[in-house]
Write a structure and sequence with these properties.
heterodimer; A: 583 residues; B: 495 residues; mainly beta; Immunoglobulin-like; Neuraminidase; 2 domains; 7-stranded mixed sheet; 10% helix; 44% strand
Chain lengths: 583, 495
């Protein structure tokens, strides 16, 4: 018994796969799944349940949304995806056993690597596979042929209603099983009936029950975003199961010749190597942006800056979050030049249309005090998402409506969020601020109200950032976030005259100036040949002046690398050696 | 002995099952208030159906008490007889057959509703209120577009029809069947469900005219007009449709008091000949010095009503544009307008839009706002009415609220109107139905009833362009879908 367990090849390979799957998701796609969780909203209301129950695949979606609540937790995505992968592998293994007599765990886990290559946005496709395989295995387990066939046909509408497109895979696998086990009595009639029933059912549903588009009647509403084409990976994943079953059948005799003990080590090494290679090579190209989005969502702005300092910034989306994090942590005017600046799109996405872009635009607008714009991008972000829900942006909507004093609209979203297990505590807390008097007790609401725009203007923060910021600064020169964003924008574009236009305003309110401003002022005065006057007009630290003078003296004599090492974080280095972003 | 033991167990099992069934049956029975304390105030309910006037054929006015309660109960007694009771944990839902019978029995009189709630301190019975049952039925169906009340992006847009006598809602067309395009501006000829038009924008774009089972797809942009046909209204003969052509733009406000602005850079009014497939130059109001929009025919077909404002520099003067409501004679035989233009409502300090004439020709209903012609985002927007013969305004206070009231549509018999209002939450537009009495005075309007009154709490769609029709729209959504994907498109001419 002990020997059997130790040398049981499927168990070892299965366990190895589980470990590999966990590591792969946790190391490479954890933040992707954290990000995707924001686009689902499990609710406990009967209205919500009825709405889903009335749709094809609605039950599957209900379960998927329920399970997706595990995604925000650190190892939640890895555990959930690994569990589902393991379940699919086991069911497929069981199915192969029934078809071929002997099954291969290697073949059973093989289709799941397609989820590694093409990570899905939700667990809906995985659950669909589970439904299809559970149906198939249940059917297979019935020994009486006639009953088995009857159950096979009867399960089709159930699977269709619960988890479309599961019945299509189910029917194909069921027929493969019947043909593989058939002896003298070939199941021609059963094949005809099952195929006709399965593939005509959607058309019957369209005519008799639901008004749905053609794609939805075959695929369901929640497998993939309905506005985009069905990804190729869908066909690969779904076809891999019947194809591998046939492969398993063909290789059955060859498998029998292998002695488990002899090949176990080699097989384990092969699978471990394959998984290690995929873990090392199949990285999420957007990982940094999603990671920062996750930190931003949790208010961990320090973590963004710390990570960016350590790892560098790899794309525009990540840079938007870095600049936002600098603003939140009060380091924008000291550490801006530590990070590569690309201009306007490094501060806020231009005319955002993507999921991430709309979140970022709302976050930046909220930070600089343009509450209407924060609300607008949050609103568009919610309604343009696949399921028309986005709890994070719905929270932002609540906040913006509270700040604007639109309590009934705030209550609408509070009521929705209160019906979710994950957000109900937050929503219930906001309920206390519904009302003019009540909202005054919230410090954050008062703080936002203090900087609400007074002068109306049509400028879109994402298209005309400087003009929109100028209005915010003119209305509230003490709006530090807007002011810093505005000055940083001018400095990144090397517009020193415009920057200097605002400095007297800053001087009126501040005793000391941040390092970035001091360097820019010095540079401006130096360009006029009056550097000595800078310290007279503005509070410039001697350290800043001395360092700049040192730079001016040694700039030509130092190598580029040395220069960058010594002065790379200064504004004058940026002005001298970095190209001006295109406007 | 063993057999006895098994029998005993079986018997116990049967008893237990019987008790369970009995308990379940008891719990299904109505829970009436016991030892209730009387309250002097009327209960707060959602939707607010207190003292509303409803048509005799309306579906049950299901509602809920808004206060925290373990259980709710209502007893309805009819002035002319009949009673109906109902209870529930979260909401009160009436049996449709019993409701219908009660309304028919009490047509022309009132129902008295007494609500009770079971709270921590026991049952409370609230002061009774009334619902007035008007004997005049409303048109059987309401057609509306459901759309997210968004800014510049839409996702799922659909035009639906709701049977007002039940809770059945059916799809006329949804944009997930037509490539997620924009579907808008549905319009019916004289409340006739068989004569309809709508526009599609982006993919499968065009104006779709539906007459019976026939669907025509039109390309409506011509060299002489500034855009595709936009805001439509049918001529009662069904031969013409008047529409505006608009160069529509929008921008977003920075201050909290305002959200967004929709305005026209240019706009004109034209008349389209449905049979000849041409825009009639002789019936077009194309001017550079004025913005004309939102046209409508009178129900005798002899007058063309429209909004008109002196042209201004846009968007700079967006808040200075004020639209008058004007009318001009229309000769349906010749397909031509006959000047002069008569100004019915002069925009001295406010702006007027959405003119709609009652089918009996007595009243002009329109929307009043501070400026512009698109009041959907204007909190101050109110519905007004003018008696055409005397040109005297009718007091519409009872119909309006502190929030936006915008689009409105008459029933075929001129006795009911449906209108859009944001009074519930200030954000989502919901349809309210209002009885217009013989002298023009409105009764207190009521929100379109739903089977589950909680639906409005969680629904993330606005009801847009509610239109009353006299029956079910029978065209299949698949037929519209198929027409969008296939078949010829007719280019409209301008002659």
């Amino acid at each position: 018994m002990k020997k059997q367990l130790v040398f049981n090849r499927p168990v070892w390979i299965f366990l190895l796969f589980l470990v590999g799957s966990f590591l792969f998701v946790d190391l490479n796609f954890r933040y992707w799944f954290h990000f995707m969780e924001q686009f689902m909203l499990f609710q406990t209301t009967s209205v919500y349940w009825k709405e889903l129950a009335a749709q094809l695949g609605g039950w599957n979606e209900y379960i998927a949304e329920y399970l997706t609540q595990a995604f925000p937790f650190a190892a939640g995505p890895a555990i959930l995806v690994t569990t589902l992968s393991g379940l699919i592998a086991l069911l497929f293994y069981k199915y192969q056993q029934a078809c071929c007599g002997k099954a291969s765990m290697g073949l059973s886990i093989l289709p799941l690597f397609l989820f590694w290559l093409f990570p899905s946005e939700t667990i809906v496709p995985m659950l669909v596979l589970v439904w299809a395989l559970v149906g198939t295995v249940v059917c297979q387990s019935i020994s009486n042929r006639n009953i088995r066939m009857l159950v096979g046909v009867l399960l089709v509408p159930l699977l269709y209603y619960v988890a479309v497109p599961a019945p299509f895979l189910y029917a194909v696998l069921l027929l493969l099983h019947e043909w593989m086990r058939a002896d003298q009595r070939k199941p021609y009639l059963y094949t005809g009936v099952l195929l006709a029933w399965t593939f005509l059912l959607p058309l019957l549903v369209m005519r008799l029950w639901l008004v749905v588009p053609m794609r939805e009647v075959w695929m369901g509403k929640y497998m993939y975003h309905p506005e985009y084409p069905v990804p190729q990976s869908f066909w690969l994943i779904f076809l891999s199961f019947p194809v591998l079953t046939l492969v398993g059948r063909l290789c059955a005799k060859w498998q029998e010749r292998l002695r488990p003990a002899k090949w176990l080590a080699a097989e384990c090494i092969f699978w471990a190597g394959l998984m290690a290679a995929l873990i090392a090579l199949r990285k999420d190209p957007m990982q940094q942006a999603y990671q920062y989005d996750y930190y931003a969502r949790n208010g961990a702005w320090d973590k963004i800056v710390a990570h960016a300092e350590k790892e560098g910034v790899h794309d525009f989306d990540a840079l938007v979050y870095v600049n936002l994090a600098l603003s939140y942590t009060g380091r924008q005017t000291t550490d801006l030049m530590k990070f590569p600046q690309v201009g306007e799109t490094g501060f806020i996405p231009y005319d955002p249309r993507t999921r991430l872009g709309l979140i970022q635009a709302s976050e930046v607008a909220w930070q600089v005090g343009q509450v209407n714009a924060a609300q607008r991008f949050a609103f568009v972000g919610v309604l343009s998402s696949q399921r028309c829900v986005q709890p994070r942006l719905m929270k932002r909507l609540v906040e913006t409506y509270l700040v604007n004093g639109e309590y009934r609209a705030a209550e609408k979203y509070i009521r929705i969020l209160e019906q979710t297990p994950r957000y109900k505590a937050w929503a219930a807390e906001q309920r206390q601020y519904l009302g003019e008097k009540e909202s005054q007790s919230a410090g954050w609401i008062q703080a936002k109200r203090a900087f609400l725009p007074v002068t109306d203007n049509p400028f879109d923060l994402t298209k005309t950032l400087p003009s929109a910021l100028a209005f915010l600064i003119d209305d509230h020169p003490d709006n530090q976030a807007a002011f810093d964003y505005g000055m940083c924008y001018l400095l990144v574009y090397k517009n020193l005259p415009a920057f200097m236009h605002y400095m007297p305003l800053y001087k009126e309110r501040h005793q000391s100036f941040p390092k970035l401003y001091q360097e820019a002022i010095c540079l401006y005065y130096a360009s006029k040949g009056k550097m000595a006057d800078a310290a007279n007009d503005y509070p410039i630290d001697s350290e800043v002046t001395n360092r700049m003078q040192q730079f001016l003296k040694t700039a030509r004599s130092l190598s580029a690398a040395n220069l960058k090492q010594l002065y790379g974080d200064t504004y004058y280095y940026y002005t001298e050696f970095m190209p001006t972003p295109k406007q | 002995m063993e057999t006895d033991y098994i029998n005993q167990h079986k018997r116990n099992l049967v008893y237990a099952l019987f008790c369970c069934l009995l308990l379940t049956a008891c719990s299904w029975g109505t829970q009436r208030p016991e030892k209730a304390s009387s309250q002097a105030e009327e209960p707060e309910i959602f939707p607010d159906y207190r003292d509303v006037t409803v048509p005799v054929n309306i579906s049950p006015l299901n509602f809920r008490l808004t206060r925290e309660a373990d259980h709710q109960y209502v007893l309805i007694t009819g002035e002319k007889g009949g009673r109906l009771e109902c209870d529930g944990q979260r909401s009160l839902r009436f049996d449709p057959d019993a409701w219908r019978k009660l309304l028919e029995e009490n047509a022309g009189s009132s129902l008295t509703l007494t609500c009770s709630s079971r709270e921590a301190g026991g049952w409370k019975t609230w002061k009774s209120f009334q619902i007035h049952v008007d004997e005049r039925p409303i048109d059987s169906h309401l057609v509306y577009r459901l759309i997210e009340p968004g800014y510049e992006k839409w996702h799922i847009v659909g035009i639906y029809q709701r049977d007002l006598e039940s809770f059945d809602e059916k799809t006329i067309i949804r944009n997930d069947m037509t490539g997620y395009n924009c579907i808008n501006c549905h319009s019916f000829c004289m409340n006739d469900p068989n004569r309809m038009m709508l526009h599609m924008r982006a993919v499968h774009d065009g104006t779709y005219i539906i007459r019976g089972k026939e669907i025509e797809r039109l390309k409506t942009k011509t060299k002489q007009t500034i855009s595709n046909l936009t805001y439509p209204y049918w001529h009662p003969s069904g031969k013409y449709i008047t529409t505006s052509v608009n160069d529509i733009k929008q921008f977003f406000h920075a201050v909290k008091e305002k959200k967004m602005e929709v305005f026209d850079l240019e706009s004109d009014v034209v008349v389209y000949d449905v049979e000849q497939h041409k825009i009639l130059s002789a019936a077009s109001l194309i001017t550079k010095d004025a913005f004309e929009t939102f046209p409508a025919f009178s129900l005798d077909g002899k007058w063309l009503y429209f909004c008109s404002a002196p042209a201004r520099e846009m968007p700079a003067d967006y808040d200075k544009v004020r639209y008058h409501i004007c009318r001009v004679a229309f000769d349906a035989g010749k397909g031509a307008l006959q000047l002069p233009v008569d100004t019915l409502v002069r925009a001295d300090s406010l702006s007027y839009t959405f003119p709609r004439i009652s089918p009996d020709g007595r009243f002009l209903m329109y929307t009043e706002t501070a400026y512009g012609q698109f009041p959907v985002w204007h909190k101050d927007a109110e519905i007004r009415m003018l008696e055409l013969e005397t040109r005297q305004p009718v007091d519409m206070t009872l119909l309006n609220s502190a929030d936006t009231e915008s689009y409105h549509s008459w029933s075929s018999q001129s006795d009911w109107v449906v209108f859009s209002s944001r009074r519930d939450n200030g954000l989502y537009t919901l349809p309210y139905i209002c009885r217009i009495q013989a002298d023009g005075r409105p009764a207190k309007p009521f929100l379109l009833p739903q089977e589950d009154s909680e639906k409005y709490d969680y629904q993330l769609y606005s009801y847009n362009l509610p239109e009353l029709v006299t029956g079910e729209v029978t065209i299949s959504p698949y037929a519209i879908q198929q027409r969008a994907h296939e078949g010829p498109t007719t280019q409209v001419a301008f002659e």
